[in-house]
């Protein structure tokens, strides 16, 4: 499979109508850059937004991205190719699209975290009250106290 086929598999079927954002590592500036996908290119948005987090928190994010004129961009095919592990660190690479957003876990970790947040909220930061509530919750759920 060539790189162009990989890109087609990587992007959603409606990529031509979607607003897609991500991040790349730019070795030239030794920093992550926020990018949007447009017509097979990654358009640098970094002059306009500090992070993906600040971008997605905007009420007008989709329109805002559409209004940004291309100043610097990279071929998505090329960035996908240079993101391969065997390519040296001096090449531009795709990064995880999230940066400062809160990422919710799933499974046991999520449940434990959710219960702890509720306990902390209910106890207002009082450690003694938290111990009591935690014991009640743990007993009610059939778990073992920590």
Question: Nutshell version of this structure?
Answer:
This protein is α+β, with helices and mostly antiparallel strands.
Number of helices: 6
Number of strands: 5
Query: What amount of the residues lies in strands?
Result: 15-25%
Q: Mean pLDDT, as a whole number? A: 85
Largest sheet: spatial strand order: 4-3-2-1-5
Proportion of helical residues: 25-40%
Q: What structural class results from the helix and strand content?
A: alpha+beta
Taking the sheet with the most strands, its summary is:
5 strands, antiparallel
> In terms of per-residue confidence, which ranges show pLDDT below 50 for 5 or more consecutive residues?
none
Radius of gyration using CA atoms only: 22 Å
The shape is elongated
Series of secondary-structure elements, N-terminal to C-terminal: HEEEHHEHEHH
Terminal CA distance reads 51 Å
Q: What's the arrangement of secondary structure elements?
A:
Elements: H1 3-10, E1 21-26, E2 31-38, E3 41-44, H2 52-56, H3 61-67, E4 73-75, H4 76-82, E5 93-95, H5 108-123, H6 127-141
Antiparallel strand pairs: 1-2, 1-5, 2-3, 3-4
How would you describe this structure to a colleague?
The protein is α+β, with helices and mostly antiparallel strands and 146 residues long. It is built from six helices and five strands. Helix content is 40%, strand content 16%. Strands 4-3-2-1-5 form a five-stranded antiparallel beta sheet. It is elongated. The termini are far apart. 12% of the residues are buried. The mean pLDDT is 85.
């Amino acid at each position: 499979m060539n790189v162009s086929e990989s890109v087609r598999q990587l992007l959603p079927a409606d990529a031509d109508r979607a607003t897609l954002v991500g991040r790349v590592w730019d070795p030239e500036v030794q920093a992550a850059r926020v990018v949007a996908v447009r017509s097979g290119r990654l358009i640098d948005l970094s002059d306009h937004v500090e992070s993906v987090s600040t971008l997605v928190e905007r009420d007008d994010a989709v329109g805002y991205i559409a209004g940004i004129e291309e100043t610097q961009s990279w071929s998505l095919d090329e960035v996908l190719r240079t993101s391969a592990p065997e390519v040296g660190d001096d090449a531009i690479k795709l990064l995880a699209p999230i940066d400062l957003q809160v990422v919710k876990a799933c499974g046991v970790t999520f449940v434990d975290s959710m219960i702890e947040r509720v306990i902390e909220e209910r106890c207002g930061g009082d450690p003694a009250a938290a111990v009591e509530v935690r014991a009640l919750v743990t007993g009610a759920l059939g778990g073992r106290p920590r």
